[in-house]
Known about the structure:
By secondary structure, the chain is α+β, with helices and mostly antiparallel strands. It is built from ten helices and nine strands.
Amino acid sequence: MADMAIAGKSHAAIQRWLNDTGILTSAGNPWYADGVRYVLNTEAMRDVLGEEKYAQLRLALHTRRPTVGRWASGKHILLRVAYCDICGGPLYGFKPESRPPEYGYYRCEACKFRLRYHDLENKTLGSLMFVAGDELVHRKVVLMGDQHTAERFDLIREIDTLKGISGVDVSAPIAALEAKLKALTDSIEPGTETWEPIGQTVEDLVTSLLDNRGELGQLLRDAKVRVEASPRRFKFRITEAGMIQMTHQAA
């Protein structure tokens, strides 16, 4: 149900699919669109889906609502970056499509407070620049171990050839080849991951993405930036080394 909602299916479409596949409500009754809407909007979905998928569901549900006043809920760079400092839940962004950012806000649905849209985003980017602006951005590189690809392919081809022979007992040579294949497969070395600098600082990359909010938000998520905010507090941190690897302590 949640996957269909995230994919953009309407409540009525989800209702039809549930009934067509014979899935009934907990009371054993057919589904109605209002019932689907109620389940998708319950707080219990957070525990069922986990924090990240629940955030995707909330974004999908907000996006499909009627745009009275032309409120847009997409392209908020702090989605899955900003969280409530009080309850730990995600902050969701709301901004009129045709108005400046000053008219928008980020909101905690559980605690019901609002933070000014422009202020929270500027504070987040400003903290990122202060803490890591001169750090080099890294990219993940996977170094593959020895996969014995050619040897395994040759053994598989020999086994297939022997299996195609009729009238002769070839079980012994097949077993020997399969043993060699298993030994090679067991000796495959796992790949290793490393981070390599791309020659561009965090400040340079962020500046280049200021007009591309989708990619800017993805950068913050990939860099493991986490903001915890409320009307009284603001905490910023990079939760793990990776794309941004701190080489100094900010003053």
